[in-house]
Amino acid sequence: MKALTTGDYAVFFVYFFIVAVYGLWVYRRKRNADATSKDYFLAEGSLTWWAIGASLIASNISAEQFVAMSGNGFTMGLAVSAYEWMAAITLVIVAVFFIPVYLRNKIFTMPQFLHQRYNSTVAMIMAVFWLLLYVIVNLTSILYLGAVAVNGISGINLYVCLVALAFVAVIITLGGMKVIGFTDVIQVFFLILGGLVTTYMAVTKVAEHNGAHGVFEGLSIMSQKANDHFHMILKKDNPSFINLPGLTVLLGGMWIVNLNYWGCNQYITQRALGANLKTARGGILFAAFLKLMMPLIVVLPGIAAYVLYKDNVFPAHDQSSLKENADNAYPILLNLLPSGFKGLSFAALTAAVVASLAGKANSIATIFTLDIFKKLSPDTPDHKLVNVGKITVVVAMFLGVVISPFLGIDKKGGFTFIQEYTGFVSPGIFAMFILGFFWKKATSNAALFATIGGFILSVIFKFLPNYVDLSFLYPSGFAVKSADSGLYEIPFLDRMGFVFIICIIGMWIISTIESNRGVKTNGLDVDTSMFKTSNSFAIGALLICGILVALYTLLW
Fold first, then answer.
1. pTM, full prediction
2. Helix crossing, 277-298 with 82-93: angle to 10°?
């Protein structure tokens, strides 16, 4: 392992200094002694479209992309970019259909939506559900993968990295959503610049090792030496098919992953809920364009690392590390970079981790404070709610530091770990939201069925292969033989699709029965005029769709 040089540390501390000074300036300039809890948690009316878009990306792109998605690029190739590219069109859908519903009905948190649309029981159950998911899976995985990457690049002790990342994130989060939103613009700048530099250096390294020069020569060599890594739709005999099951990626569970994440997730939608509709849509469209370029930053380096690994370019220790765990690809790749450039890439990675941690911690604090604590203690003064939120941030980050080393994320690969275990609750949550938005007859009991029943069904489908031989599903592609267990398993994206369909049917049956019995529901204020967009937004959305069609046509 190459240690960071003086030049690397100089670049890193320039980044850190810029973020710290800008964050302090934002805090002092926009601080309001009489700020409400909504102002603290949502930066109500303060974020511009570019700040919203940058904050969405900064909160989304973290160690699970830089480290874990690069690891997936190493093992399965460009196909994992489906998460990023389909997210771009998902963001357009969210901007057109979801955000107007939230803003028209003055919804600021996801549990508030559930309380307003269904009842307090559904809202409280889901608030607790989300807190557990955010702390135990999301916050801890971001911390752990980030610390592993920083440790792999710098050689600093893993636990010191965990504490340092958590500490910096807490400092930013305590400034509130205004500081998070505006400092995320700086974070995204470093994230994209450092990420592109890493990709450029990695691809040109492939070219140089093969006696060529330049990025395009490197890409050509990569496509020749790892042709199977440049297809978006995997065939059934591909070992990674169980994680990205062919055409059903485009037609099935991937939509649930993305629509639930971008449209029904406090962590993400919180950035837009404090803005007006035009600003929110502009920010989301900006984020969608940024999403299109993310595979260049987080997937291509993994493929380059795979080609270099096959050519035995890395030292023996690094070759062995890659054989054991593909998530080591990105940190090992950074060790090939010259002084200064490595510091820039290190800053980009750290920026991504810290921004995601801050965003996640703020969402945890928002849900706990506004949807649990305030419900239990409704007379609490507004300024004390802000203090409760700050205490929650510290406690959540402390729990993340304590829990994260014990998750065993590396056994599955970090990105897959996060997607699969978040997927235990995503189908039921999305079913509850989508019917809650657009079907006024959906009842509270139906929502409870989707919430609890969806989770139970996900667990049943997960462990079903231990008790039932699913080989009869193999010809259809809905079951794949696992290399780990030797059993025929249903790919988790397909499992999510099946559970979602069952939840929708179950909700329809329960709601229809209760509707016939005269059970009243709390429909939202929704009409078709809400979904009209400006001409500039429509042009941007069509451009995104056109780019995606071209990419999939080229890389099918």
1. 0.84
2. 170
